[in-house]
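Lab notebook: predicted structure, single chain.

Context: the supervisor wants predicted structures on file for every construct in the current expression panel, including those that have not yet been purified. This is the next one on the list. No modifications to the sequence; it matches the entry in the shared construct table.
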Amino acid sequence: MLNIKEALRKNTMVIALIVVMLLFQVLISISGKGSLFAPSNITNLILQNSYVVILAAGMLLCILTGGNIDLSVGSIVVLVGATAGTMIVNMKLNIFVSIFVCLLIGVIIGAWQGFWIAYIRIPAFIVTLAGMMLWRGLAQVLLNGLTISPFPEDYLQYFTSFLPNSPKYTMIVSVIVGAVVFLVYAVLQILGRIQKKQKGYEVSSLPGLIIKLVLLFAVIAALAFLLGEHKGIPVVLILLGIVVFAYGYFTSKTVPGRHLYAMGGNEKAAKLSGVNTNKVLFFAYTNMGFLSAVAALVCVARFNSAAPSAGTGYELDAIGSCFIGGASAYGGTGTIGGAVVGAIFMGVLNNGMSILGIDANWQKAVKGIVLLAAVVFDVLSKKQQSTKG
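Prediction complete. Output recorded below exactly as produced.
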């Protein structure tokens, strides 16, 4: 019984996501406005929320360091997007050179903010608030208030195309890719459990692991089928998979990744243990700048334009995804998987309410309530644990 309670506690947001998706499906079906699980809508969900997943992965690293956030990510997105538009569309420069320059600009911006936060110790809120105004101002100057479009097809194919190119093989390829992804994940989970057991670490129960793998198989199989029914696998989904896997591995399996948790748990103790906390904080914000640039490249391809209004509110989507996905407002707690679940949750809320025709203002109100509820849940859980301790 204790294991079941613990499993439910750890997967609260996953269960909430499933409930919300089923609720929207019922409401949309009753209203006669289609289906939340329509193949085309699932593809739209992936494309619409790709930037949120990318930004949430970087934002989580900032939050882990002690509840710090980055308010400038939306402004970095519009500045890097404006740079991409200027170089690729207006100047007609080489696409790969332009992409490299855009990523470099993101890293430089992140390092600039990271320097003030990590080494001068100016609060992250102040530095990134200043960055939010500074980078958007520079983007407006660069764009001169105008939208740059359209981007060449040679650029768009790297972010907006589907695999395979032939409609004849979409289902076969989708099913094969889904099967490979599941098998790789299942093997890694089983090997990880065996290694932990050999080293004497505590492991989850075998039935729990089996149930987890069965549920995951069902989700991947359904997703593969739905994508195969539409246009196939979006290229951007492969990019998201790489980002999630890389940062999931970094935070859970590497020493620098564990330093993020150590710093968020107790910075003074981490420093006394030999962790270079300044370096950890600097890395978190430099990385945030890099992922903001990646998100910018995805966004300009999706909208096929670099607009002055791009990136508005993106920082709130990323922050909300992390907290809804279980990251602690105090730092030291959270996972990349949780941030992804949070991003999907936000995406389903947006998509479901849009299909139902709910007013945009009410949509904001609902998202605000959900975010507050997630943070309240985190705070109350921590108080309960400290009381038991």
